[in-house]
Amino acid sequence: MTLTLTLVMSILLAVAMLILAVMAVRGKRSLGISILSAGLVSLLASVMFLLLGAPDVAMTEAAIGSGLTTFLFFFVLSRVRRGEHD
Amino acid sequence: MIKRLSLILLLAGLGSVFLGLMLTYSADESLNQTASYYAEHTAKDLGAANIVTAIIVTYRGLDTLGEVTVLFLTAAIVGLVLAQAKRREPGRALPPAGELLLTGTRLLLPLILLFGAYVFIHGHLTPGGGFQGGAILASAMLLLLLSNPLQRFSHRLITVIESASGALFVFIGVLGIVYAGGFLDNRILPIGTFGELFSAGAIPIIYTLVGLKVGAEFSSMLVSLSETEEL
Amino acid sequence: MLVTIAMGCGFLLILIGLFGALNNRNILRMIVAFAVANTGVNLVLVSVGYMRGRTAPILNDAVPVAEAAARIIDPVPQALVLTAIVIGLGVTALMLAYAYKLYQTKGSLDIAKHSELKW
C-alpha cells in the first residue's frame, strides 16, 4: 500500500470526523458545542468529497450542510433559551 | 439498563450488516452501461461540458421536478407552522449592530449575490449549478437578517419570485414535449459551440430558474424562523 | 483503499448518529444526531462511484471529449447525492419548526414530558 498524499489526507479527515461526531452526540457538553461539531463534520465531509472526485457534491455540501444547517440550528436555539439545560 | 443494552444490541447487529457489505464490495474496472452512455453522448447530443448537470437537468429531469416540488412543500409547511397572528411592535429599540458588521454587510452583499448568480449561470461549464447558486443567494439574505434583526421583509416579493420560477420551469418542460424529444429536452434552443456560455440549448435557462426558486425557498424559511416572537 | 476508508467512515457516522438519536432526551440533540447520520449516508453513496486512476466527470482540457468514457468516474451517484443533500436540509428545517412548536406548548424540550401519545 503506497502512502500517497491523498491517502494520508483521507485517513486524517476520517479520524477527525469520527472524533467530532462523538463530541456532537454526547449529552454532557453544551448544545452550542454540539451544533458546531456537526457543522465541522459537514465541512470535513465536503473536503472528503473533493478527494473522491466529486466537485459538485463538495460545493453543495459546503454551502448547505455546514452553512445553512448550522444557522438554522442557532436561530432555533436562540428562541428556546430556557429548555437548553436538561 | 435494559434500554441501553437493547440499543447496543441493535447497533451491533446493524454494524455487522455494514461490515458484511463493506468486505464484499469491489470497485468496478470500467464504467457500466448507463454511465458509458452518458459519457459518450453528452457532448454530441446536449453540448454540455458538465456531465452531472446534464444528467440532473435533461436525462433525469423528472427527478429534479420531484425535488423542486418537495422543497416547495417544505417551505410552505414551515411558513404555515410558524405563522403568527399579528406581529406586535417591539417595545424596546435594539441598539444598532456594530460598525464592522454594518460596513461589512454593505460591502459583501452585492459580491455574494453576483457570485451566486455566476455559479448558477455557468452550471453547464464548470462545477456548480442551480442548487449551489440558490444556497449562496440564501446566505446573502442571511447576512441581511443578521445585521438588522428587526427589518421587515415583504413576503410578497419572495412568493412572486418563487411561483414565477416554478411555473416557468414547468412551462419550458412542456415546450420540450411539443417541440423536441420529451419533457425538459434542451434542444428547443440551438446547441451552439461546445464550451461557450450561450450553448447547450435551454440548460442555462432551466438551471437559472431552478437556482432562483431554491434561493427564494430557503430565504422564505429563514425569514419565517426569524419572525417568531421571543418568549 | 480510499474507497474503504471513506465507506468505513460513512458507516461509522451512520451508527454514531443513530446512537445519538436514540439515546438523548433533549429534542434538539436528537435533531443534531440525525444531521450527522445524513452526512454519513451521503458519504457512503458518493464513495460507491469512485474508480482508481480516474478523475471528475467534467469535460475540459484535461479530459478531452473523445476519450471521456475511459477517463471519468461514474457520474450517476453524484447526481443522486445532490438531490439527497438538498432534501436533507428541508427535512431538518421541518423538524426544527416542529420542535419549536412543541416547546411553545409545554415549555420544555425534554421528550419524556411530551407523553400525550403514550398508552
3D structure, described in words:
The complex is a heterotrimer of chains A (86), B (231) and C (119). With 86 residues, chain A is an all-alpha fold. Chain A has a domain of 51 residues. Chain A contains 3 helices and no strands. In chain A, helix 1 packs antiparallel against helix 2. Chain B has 231 residues and is mainly alpha-helical. In chain B, 68% of the residues lie in helices and 0% in strands. The model of chain B has no long low-confidence stretch (mean pLDDT 84). Chain C has 119 residues and is mainly α. Helices cover 66% and strands 0% of the residues of chain C. In chain C, helix 1 runs antiparallel to helix 2 and helix 2 packs antiparallel against helix 4. The model of chain C has no long low-confidence stretch (mean pLDDT 88). The interface between A and C is large, with 47 and 52 residues.
**Mean pLDDT, all residues of chain A:** 87
Number of strands of chain C: 0
| Bulk shape of chain C | elongated
Domain module count of chain C: 1
Are there runs of chain A of 5+ residues with pLDDT below 50, and where?
none
What is the 3D form of chain A?
flat
Q: What structural category characterises the helix and strand content of chain A?
A: mainly alpha
Distance between the termini of chain A: 48 Å
The chain pair with the largest interface is: A-C, 47 and 52 residues
> Mind telling me the CATH class of chain C?
Mainly Alpha
CATH architectural category of chain C? Orthogonal Bundle
Encode the helix/strand succession of chain A as letters: HHH
Report how far apart the termini of chain C are.
50 Å
Series of secondary-structure elements of chain C, N-terminal to C-terminal: HHHH
Structural class by secondary-structure content of chain C: mainly alpha
Provide the CATH topology of chain C: Helix Hairpins
Radius of gyration of chain C: 20 Å
Global mean pLDDT of chain C? 88
